[in-house]
Structures are given as structure tokens and as C-alpha cells.
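C-alpha cells in:
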């Protein structure tokens, strides 16, 4: 339950930041439109496109916040360089997805649309650039939401295990042992 509060809080902070940036972009676009004399630029995106992009962004934000909550739950106080570099992990998926911007309907982008960690980036790109069948949009959103739910469950289990092992930084082996066997995990498991 505690991990849900942590994920919800960081997601709300992220949403606040996104809305603030949208506000600034809207003001900037209005000022630039008025100064340049461009008229009629409001019909670029339909309401359904914006709604789909918002849904995918929200689900992706929850997925990545759950991922970071799971990573943070393994820390006991000192954050090593390996944990600090986790912030770069989502950038891998952004870079990979933006390779397919020129042709968003190729097989590579279609495959990325159904992988939870890249679906929040790949599917909105495909939606904005062309016509995507509704079943693909719904299937991609379902895999993204399922990935977010599974990552949240994993983060909760890691957080619980970290609380049971309070005072020492759990190794990956200790985390795996507690996740598999529960709180009554044997002290040593024969390999």
C-alpha cells in the first residue's frame, strides 16, 4: 500500500509538470502565431488523437514511475552509480522509437507498439503520423496497462522485501529468494 502512495505522488508531480509545460507551449504558440500572422493553425490535431496520446502518456508515466519505485526500494541509503544510471533507461526506448519516426507503420514500430516499455512512445507516434487500426491501439494500451500493473506489483513486493531486510542492502539473490519463497525464505538455497 505504501508503494501505491509513492507511485501516485510522483505521477501527480509528473502530471503537474506536463500540464505546466503544455500551458507554456500554448502561450508561446499563441504569441508566435499572433506575431507571425499565421491563422488557422488550431486544426492540427483532433480531440481523439490528443486523448489517445494522453492515455498512453499517463499509462507510460505510471509504468516508469513503478519501475523507478522498484529500483529505489532496493536502496538502503547510499545510492550507487548503478542506481543513478537507471534514469537513462527510458531514454533507450525514446531513442529507439524515434529512429522509426520517418516510417511509423513499418514492422519495427509496430512491434515496439506492443512492448510495454516502448508502447507509450511508439503508439502515439504511429497515431499522430497515420491511421492505426483501433484493435492495435487497444491491444497496445492493454499491454501497457498490464505492464504498469505488473511493474507496480513487482515494486510492492520488492518494497515489502526491503522492509523485511531493513538495515542491510539486499543483494539481488536475497531479493529473488524473498520474492520466490516469501517471508519464510530459507537462509540459504542450494544451487
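Residues out:
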Amino acid at each position: 500500500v505504501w508503494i501505491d502512495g509513492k507511485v501516485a505522488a510522483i505521477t501527480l508531480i509528473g502530471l503537474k509538470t506536463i500540464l505546466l509545460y503544455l500551458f507554456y507551449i500554448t502561450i508561446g504558440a499563441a504569441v508566435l502565431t499572433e506575431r507571425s500572422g499565421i491563422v488557422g493553425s488550431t486544426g492540427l490535431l483532433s480531440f481523439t488523437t490528443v486523448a489517445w496520446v494522453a492515455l498512453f502518456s499517463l499509462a507510460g508515466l505510471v509504468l516508469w514511475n513503478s519501475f523507478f519505485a522498484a529500483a529505489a526500494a532496493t536502496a538502503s541509503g547510499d545510492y550507487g552509480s548503478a542506481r543513478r544510471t537507471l534514469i537513462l533507461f527510458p531514454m533507450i526506448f525514446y531513442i529507439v522509437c524515434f529512429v522509426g519516426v520517418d516510417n511509423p507503420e513499418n514492422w519495427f514500430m509496430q512491434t515496439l507498439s506492443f512492448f510495454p516499455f516502448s508502447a507509450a512512445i511508439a503508439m502515439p507516434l504511429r497515431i499522430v503520423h497515420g491511421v492505426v487500426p483501433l484493435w492495435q491501439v487497444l491491444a497496445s494500451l492493454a499491454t501497457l496497462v498490464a505492464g504498469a500493473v505488473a511493474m507496480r506489483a513487482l515494486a510492492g513486493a520488492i518494497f515489502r522485501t526491503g522492509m523485511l531486510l531493513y538495515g542491510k542492502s539486499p543483494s539481488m539473490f536475497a531479493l529473488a529468494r524473498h520474492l520466490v519463497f516469501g517471508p519464510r525464505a530459507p537462509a540459504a538455497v542450494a544451487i
